[in-house]
Amino acid sequence: MPVGLFRVCLLVITAIVNHPLFFPKENGTVPENTEEIIQKMKEREESLRLEQLRLEQEIADQEATQKALEKAAVVVEESKEEKVRWDMWTALSMVIFLLIELWRQDFQEGNWQDIGGEEDDMAVLGKAFKGVALPDKAVLASFYEKRILGTTGDMARMREMVEGFADDLLEALRSVCNRDADMEVEDCMGVGSMYENWRVRKPFVCDLIVPFAPPEPYCFRCQTWCSGDSFPPDEQGYGTIKVCRADEDETGCICDKTKLGEDMLCLLHSQVSSTRPSSEMEDLLCFKNTQYLDADQVMKWFQIAVTKAWNRISHKYEFDLSFSLLDSPGALKIKFKSGKSIAFNLTPVVQYENSDVYFISHFPRSNLAADVPSSTHWFLTFAVYERRFIQLVSKTLPANACHVSCLQILSFLHGKQCSLTGPSGLTNYHLKTVLLHLLQARPSQDWAPEKLEARLQDMLKFLEKCLHEKKLYHFFIGNGKVPAELGFPIIFQRAEPLNLFRPFVLRRDIYRKMVDTFHEMLRNMSALINEYTVHIPLAHTNGIRKE
């Protein structure tokens, strides 16, 4: 109520004060400008309304922009979440794929030799075997007895004759060499098909390896591709041989790796002994300006030494000795006055540590080392262990086991096929490697003589699988199941498996030739076996049986 009275009083006072009578005469013109003021007020009101509309439009645009930004942020966030989910699934898929691939490789490397299945399941071995009828047991047995045994009867006498002559030749070689400067030659050892009793193709050739060592005070320090240092893929299976003084530290003194000042002297090595003349290392058959043994220099030295040795003892024999092949420096041939001849290979090798693994300068009659990286790279041969493994397994097999027969038949058929269509990349060493894997995979009773046909089919199936996958692993390298009785070096068992077919992966022409030769051999197998079985005279067969 007091507030209402106050408002009424305020209104009365305002009316009195604003009464026209209280203003002077000069203000009498205000009513005349009322319309102008009203017009200006309307214009001002219109401008304010337009400004309000503009501000409202700007606010609406800002709100729309803000909403668009928020929406874009939401889309980006969702896309990020989707990308994260996609990356997660991609990574998970890759991990699963890699695990599957690793498992597949482990399965192939660990169980690829498990043939499995019964003998009746071997009727069809694969695409290459469709329409191929293998000879039955009777035909195979007859073929082996008449053709294979008939050509291998003289191997024992030939081995004995060659070994005796080689021992005499090496003894003469030692006598013509300078014991203080030349390499020291040890006794020879027989390896390969002639000493594993499966050689079938003529001419018979004995393979002998001759270990040698440097003169005192030097020694060989060998390094392989699996010894820890990185080797390129094309150098797997190779190693290098460094010629060092026996009293030299294996790791090498720091004075060889660091430039000492002129007023500083190594306490372990004098300035004279720290550097060796290049001529001294070349006398030790090293590659020029290096300490690494040169295979070419070794073979030249060996040829000269053999020639001197033969000149010393030639008067004792009634035959001539000559080098038979230019591309195989150790290939020798004995020529009798009757016109007959005997060929054998005498190849120098270097022993790896205290094992029976050897560094070999070259492989006679083989393309296993056709593309040697350099003359300082030596291929490793496990021939001594291969011979021992076959001998060890043979003791556990049934009497007259068929393992050697299988290898002999395949080697014979492959040789006949190569004589018809030309040589291929497939060698007898590949065939022997297949047999070694199967000997380890199959139980002893599976090698009974009556199972010759089944085991022959096993070898063909295994070889076809390896050709298809371009993978035939070396038997010893990377094989953790090597019998402990062999005393095989553990470093090679722990190494990565060595694929013998790796050179053919990039050389497709050789690979194609190898596969075609194998398929052609399958197609001609029955015809060759039947032909060589039928055309053997009965009298010759009876003579073989009497032997």
Automatic annotation (TrEMBL):
It holds the Pfam family Mab-21_C. Residues 1-20 form the signal peptide. Belongs to the ITPRIP family. It is a single-pass type I membrane protein. It is found in: Cell membrane; Nucleus outer membrane. This is Inositol 1,4,5-trisphosphate receptor-interacting protein. GO terms for cellular component: nuclear outer membrane; plasma membrane. Residues 404-477 form the Mab-21-like HhH/H2TH-like domain. Residues 38-72 form a coiled coil. Enhances Ca(2+)-mediated inhibition of inositol 1,4,5-triphosphate receptor (ITPR) Ca(2+) release. InterPro entries: ITPRIP-like (IPR026250), Mab-21_HhH/H2TH-like (IPR046906), MAB21L/cGLR (IPR024810). It comes from Quiscalus mexicanus. Keywords: Cell membrane, Coiled coil, Glycoprotein, Membrane, Nucleus, Signal, Transmembrane, Transmembrane helix. SMART domains: Mab-21. GO terms for molecular function: protein kinase inhibitor activity. The keyword Transmembrane helix applies.
